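ingest -> validate -> predict -> emit
validate: passed (alphabet ok, no gaps, 443 aa)
predict: started
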Amino acid sequence: MTEVFISDTKKGIKSAVNEIFTNLETIEPILKDSKEVYIKVNGIDFKKHTHTSPEVLKEVILYLKNKGANIHVMENSTQANLTRIVFAINGYKKICEDLDVETIFLDEETTKTFEFKGKKSIEEDDKGYRLKKFQMPETIVKIIENRDSVTYINLPKLKTHSMARVTLGIKNQWGFPQHADRGKDHNYNLHSKLVDVYGIIKPDITIIDGATGGTVHGHYPPTAWEDRVVKQFNILIGGRDTLAVDVVGARIFGLTLDEVPHLKIAYERGLGEGDLSKINVIGKDLKNYKEKYDWNLLQKFPEDVKIIKGKELLCKEGCENNPLATLQAFAYDHSDKFKGGWFIVMGKGHDENILEQLKKEGYTKGLVAGYCAIDEVGEKLRKEFGKRKVFFSGDCNNLAETVKAILKLSKMTVFDLVPISSEELMDLIDTANKQGSTALLPL
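emit:
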């Protein structure tokens, strides 16, 4: 049977990390011939509860250094963010400097072309599958080409996800495609695309960080709602089969394989063990996890922001929950600065009198999220209210464009979001740009 280990972090994170690795080494050595190790953290943002705990990363590094490993910590943060900024704020930079570990900002690397093979397009419907090209950075290419000699360790955070249901080991690799490739078909096709990336590169080891709490109701919880959306599990979940580890992680949230599309697709493609009855879980009894947690957003939004949803097509994987998660975080974590009085239009299938409804209720500015809504009503709204008042977020929701629009509409700036000085922020952006960053920013 496939083994997955759960370690209790209440006895100390160092002890829990060592226990996971000790168990894994009974199967085979952690390090390969080169002793080179690449660690992929979940560093989508510096926001509290969104990223892999610095304490867990530190103890993983210390364990591996004690084995003589040459360690690299890598990430390409979410759209509308720079990896350099995230590392500087959330503590990764200091840890890596103190422990003499290389940081790799994947958004600053040259890339190689790969193909999504498992997705079906809206246009083709039942006509078959098509190939879509995307870019992955040179470090990932190096790992792919040297799987026999280098170790790749995946360190996701224990989180639900309002678009992918959970964001664990497989979803954590969505940091590999470059920003410009992520927004396209970030719709119902997302689940297959996550598995496409996993089929190209699979970690040697995945350790899910649930040491300082796991998030429910999505992956980007408003800090103002910590008591409702952060649950204390105090565990690490580790194994060599990432799918099996993810299935156990999903089960902690009360979710089954059938309820998490990308896990089911990975199992159907033969990319790991997805049958929980064939996974030997060591360290905790899953029967003790009796509660089922909601992966979808809490349905609470500012009353003075009008949300208009298309009745024909609206994908939670992109045009619905991407802007709504952003709206929640800005509105409730920055309530002293946030201003409403605007609209969001999303999806396909809107009332013919949408313009009259908005005018009647006094809304004259807003965001049109995703190409379905843009194609259907975008120009009509811009013609009436003006281009400067109606913002477009292209693709299946371009997160950088969404963030930029919501900031402008709510009369906020990026400086309201970042807990460092404007000088330090601009220095980090300038350095990243000089290094060739391809990150999409809300500037």
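The longest strand covers residues 2-8.
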